[in-house]
Structures are given as C-alpha cells and as structure tokens.
Amino acid sequence: MSTDTGASAEAEARAAGAAGTSGAAGTSGAAGAEDEAGAGSGAARLQQLFEGHRLTPTQRRIAHCMVRRAADAPFLSSVELAELAGVSQPSVTRFAVALGFDGYPALRRHLREVAPAERGAGEDSYNEYQQAVQSEIDNLRHLASLLADPAPVVRAGRLLAESRPLPVLGLRAASAQAGGFAYFARKVHPDVRLLDEGGTMLADRVDAAVRAGATALLCFALPRHPREVVEGLEYARSVGLTVVTVADSAFAPVARHSDLLLPAAVGTGLAFDTACAPMLLGRVLLEAMCDALPDAQARLEEFDAKAAARGLFAE
Amino acid sequence: MSTDTGASAEAEARAAGAAGTSGAAGTSGAAGAEDEAGAGSGAARLQQLFEGHRLTPTQRRIAHCMVRRAADAPFLSSVELAELAGVSQPSVTRFAVALGFDGYPALRRHLREVAPAERGAGEDSYNEYQQAVQSEIDNLRHLASLLADPAPVVRAGRLLAESRPLPVLGLRAASAQAGGFAYFARKVHPDVRLLDEGGTMLADRVDAAVRAGATALLCFALPRHPREVVEGLEYARSVGLTVVTVADSAFAPVARHSDLLLPAAVGTGLAFDTACAPMLLGRVLLEAMCDALPDAQARLEEFDAKAAARGLFAE
DNA sequence: ACGACTGTGCATGACTATATGCAGCCGCGG
DNA sequence: CCGCGGCTGCATATAGTCATGCACAGTCGT
C-alpha cells in the first residue's frame, strides 16, 4: 500500500494538474451541458473551490475524485469519499479544513447548498399559475423516468388490444380522461365501451362487456378516489377481467384491485387537480395498444380518407 | 441488524421476492427486461420496491418523498429523510424494516447499488414514449412563459364567472377537455352547460343558453379542428356571446371567431395528440374564474362536507 | 361507550462517522 | 551522516446517526 501510495499520488498530481490547466475550457463546456443533474456545473464550482489553495498530493487526489463524482459528492461520508479516492479518512477531514471549512460536514453542507441552487434557480419569481405549470413539468419529468422501462406499458397495451370489447372506466374527475382515451381508442379498436357513470348500472355494463367477450378493463383513477371506482374494479376482477389502472399514485385505494398499475402524479397547485401526466400516460398506453393492433394503421388511414371526403375538418 | 454488509444480501433477496410474487399491483413485468441498461430509472425502481407492501400513511409520505427526490435519496441519512418527509426519524427506520430490509442503512445501500445505472446511462437515449413526454414538457414551459403575464387569463376568468349560465364547447377530441372543465366548474359555478355534441342541436343549445342569460362561451379547440366548431363559434358570436377560446395555436381556424384566444400547444409525438397544455390552461382558467366568483370557496367547502357525509370518496 | 389495536412521536442506548493526537515515512539542507 | 519539517496513516475521543422501548392518539369492532 505504502509503495503504491507514492507512485499513484504522483500520477494523480499530474492528472489533477492537467485538469487544472484545462479548467477554464472545461468549466465553460460543462456549463453548456447543463442537463446532467448539476454534475457539470457542480464540477465547475468544485474547480473554483479548489483553485487558489495549495494542495498536497493526497488532497489533489481527493479533489479529483470529487470532481469525477460531483453528483454524489455532496452526500458521501468522509469514509466513503476516502475509499473512493484511495486515501485515509483523516485526510478527507484535513482536506476540508485546508479549504477553509470547519470540518468535513461543513464542506459537504456547502456542496449541498450550492449545487441545488442551480437546479431550481429562482422558483419564487413565478406567479401562482406558473408555479402550477412548473409542478406539472416535474410530474412529467417523473413520468419520463418511469417510462425508461417501457415494459409495463407495452404489456398493458397488449392486454388492452386483445380485449374485445374494451371497457374503459373513469368516474367523476376521471371521466374526462376516460372519455378522451375512448374517443381516440375507437379509431383503432373496433369496440370501446366508455364506463363513465357509476351507480348500479356500472356492474350491469361490466357484465355486458364480459358477456360480449371482454378480457381486460382500463381504469383511470384520480383523486379524490370515489368509492364506486374501488367497488367497480373489485367487481370487474371478480368476473374475470384483467384490470389495468392509470392512477395518481402506486398507493391509491385502487391499487389492491388492479392487476397492472401505472402511476402518474396529478398536480395539486391549483384549486382543482391537474392531470397532465395521467392524460399523457393514457396516450402512451394508446400508442402501445396501436402497436399491438395489426390493423391500427389501416383504420386510421381509412378514417382520414373518409374525413377528408366529408370535409369534416377545417384548415 | 448492526451489521449491514452481511445481512443486506438477505434483505434484498426478500424484498425482490416480495415484489415478484405480488404481481397483483405492479409496474413490474420488467423481470425479463431487467438487464437493459439503466432499466427503470431510480424512480421506477423505487416504485417497484414499494409495491406489494402494505404501507401506513406515514410510510407512504416517506415513499413519496423518496420518489420526489430520487436522485438524493440514496445518500440521505434517516434524520434528513425524516425532515424532508415531515415525519419522525424512527418512522424512517420502521419504513425500511417494513420493506424487508434489516434497517435503514440496508435500504440506503440497496438504493445506491441500483441507482448508478441511471446516471451513467446517456440521457439522450430517450425512447419513443419519453420523447413524447419531453416535447410536452417543452409545451408546458412555453405555457409557463405565456403565463408570465396573467392579465388575459384573469380577464377570461372574469368573463366566464359573470356568465350565467356558462356554456362550454368542445367537440370530438376536445370534448374530453370541455367535459373535464365543466365537471370542476360546476363545483363553483351554478350553471355550466356542456356543449359536446355537434350537429344541428348545437345552435339550439347556444340559443337556449343565451335565452337563459349567458353572456360568454368557453371553447376548447384542438386539432384537427372540426368545421362544426368554427361554425358554432361564428353562430355564438352572432347571437351576442363573448367567446373565450383555448386553442392549440393563435392561428387556429377558430381564431377569427374568438374574442379572447388563449394558446396552448398540443404534443404531436404520438399517434394521437396530447393536450397537456390546453388541459392545464383550462384549470388555470378555472382558478381565475374561482377568484372572480365570491362564493366559490364556500361552495367547495359545502361540497366537501356533503361528500364526507355520504362517504363518497375512499381513503 | 368501551376495550383492543394499530400507528406515531419521544427518549435513550448502541453504533457509526468525524476530528484529533501520535508515530512513521519521505525529501531536503546542514 | 544526521536532523528537520511536512505529509500521511493509525488509534482513539467525540459528535452525530440509527434502533428500540414506551406512552399517547386515533380507529375499529364489539
């Protein structure tokens, strides 16, 4: 270890030196590649922090390691950082002190406070409406990250495409979502049945769909979750339907009665909930369903032709 | 429980087993696509972790908090996570245990081992669905910038609030938007009339609304713009209604027949249009309308009280 | 209305992470 | 050759974090 220490410290010194000289160019370049969760700009900040301090080889090694793992650095313990940098834990503490902090926790706190400042720069300058939009953007971001794995959506699309007829359930606030889905779904699926009314008729309609051959049911479940929806799903499953649910959260009351639950958060910044993410997820589901329906494209083209012939649309 | 290295493998095995068998409620189905680089970003993995476990309200709060701050979560201490989630520190420990881990450090360790795939995986390799979401995020950003000046929205809100009754027009693809708006609007406005069917009845209904005292009409106009909508608006203005329109563009065919046009772009990344921004703008409009209705708050509270009395909503 | 139960926060002991004293290693100058 | 000063890791005292027993509040089913 000790023999290795000297040699590799030397190597690190050279590496750090190179990074230092190219610091200017590297900084501006990173500022451009903003999206990497504060990593780029955070690294730039780090470089600035280190500049002007005469650091020992071990400390340069720590600094270099922090730059490399800029995203994690604000959350690492001194022991972890030491291991990643291949130095002892006390060296990390001394490094923090050398930079002018009261200790390692102070350095870490500083990093945490500086990095996020760039992420949500001045959210308080937005007005009420803009904040609501902003929070919906966050919801969509979250949805995008969930869609990194499209398998659940693809599976849901197949389930829905195979069901003839396809019942689509949405009550109260969610009925608009269900309606929107059903409107488009009808253009590619031969038999979509919109279930947007509760009461005793709901079970009747579920029964009718099953008798007609339905195998799956799509449910839009948004807060505040009507009891009827929970009961409706319970019934639907009891008669053999596979339930695919788009809900505002994986913990919604409908979760227990769903075979496949796709979560999409609602926005609560305004007097009434905004359901951008659920709607978008509905369309994504629709897309997946189209992919599972061989004649979807043909049906769409047929509709376009007829619409044009009838002069249905302006423009 | 103190030893976190040896026991964690066991804990993970149990957690994975639980998630797999639960099958009931799962975004999972990723069993096969598991190897895919960065499969299921951190947030998605988190969701999978939580599913299949019956969580208490406090634990759900913790779970939500972790999902929201998925990037930081793997590095937060139990105290910090507790503060962010607004719960006590022991609750965090119990949460970890409830998920099948041997303690909070085991949970955090698990998160760290799973998460890094996401960071490295290039963010530019969005799949088809994610790209659609991304373009809707852009649309919302644009909407946010438009809302920097809330004057048009406020004016529209006043116009709509003053109209008794308030006709809301939306045909075909837009009928879901109109329906969603009408559903919520009815909770604060005494007489909302949904005009979601075209044909000759449309003019009849506009006439009826005017006779009943309507002074304004709200129209949702999305592509592809049905001729009927254009004609309907033309007629509405001819009988004296002030037309407020939410449209996908300032140059939509309905623009000529609108007194106040609020633009909100639609997403075209999928087979069918996504109307996040128009929907959100509708809710913003609703908010503005509430602000212009003095007794809106009272009506909402009254509804809440009645809903609670009737046990209308679950949870 | 009452008891049983679940869920929650507070208080505290066990434990991990951080800071500091100490000794060995290296390079340099006498 | 020796002594010296700076740098580093080891050992340990201290501070902060985690886990658990306990009491209280809310909910449900008698």
From TrEMBL, chains A, B:
<dbReference type="GO" id="GO:1901135">
    <property type="term" value="P:carbohydrate derivative metabolic process"/>
</dbReference>
<protein>
    <recommendedName>
        <fullName>HTH rpiR-type domain-containing protein</fullName>
    </recommendedName>
</protein>
<dbReference type="InterPro" id="IPR000281">
    <property type="entry name" value="HTH_RpiR"/>
</dbReference>
<dbReference type="InterPro" id="IPR046348">
    <property type="entry name" value="SIS_dom_sf"/>
</dbReference>
<feature type="region of interest" description="Disordered">
    <location>
        <begin position="1"/>
        <end position="38"/>
    </location>
</feature>
<dbReference type="GO" id="GO:0003700">
    <property type="term" value="F:DNA-binding transcription factor activity"/>
</dbReference>
<feature type="compositionally biased region" description="Low complexity">
    <location>
        <begin position="1"/>
        <end position="32"/>
    </location>
</feature>
<dbReference type="InterPro" id="IPR047640">
    <property type="entry name" value="RpiR-like"/>
</dbReference>
<dbReference type="InterPro" id="IPR009057">
    <property type="entry name" value="Homeodomain-like_sf"/>
</dbReference>
<dbReference type="Pfam" id="PF01418">
    <property type="entry name" value="HTH_6"/>
</dbReference>
<dbReference type="InterPro" id="IPR036388">
    <property type="entry name" value="WH-like_DNA-bd_sf"/>
</dbReference>
<feature type="domain" description="HTH rpiR-type">
    <location>
        <begin position="42"/>
        <end position="118"/>
    </location>
</feature>
<dbReference type="GO" id="GO:0003677">
    <property type="term" value="F:DNA binding"/>
</dbReference>
<dbReference type="GO" id="GO:0097367">
    <property type="term" value="F:carbohydrate derivative binding"/>
</dbReference>
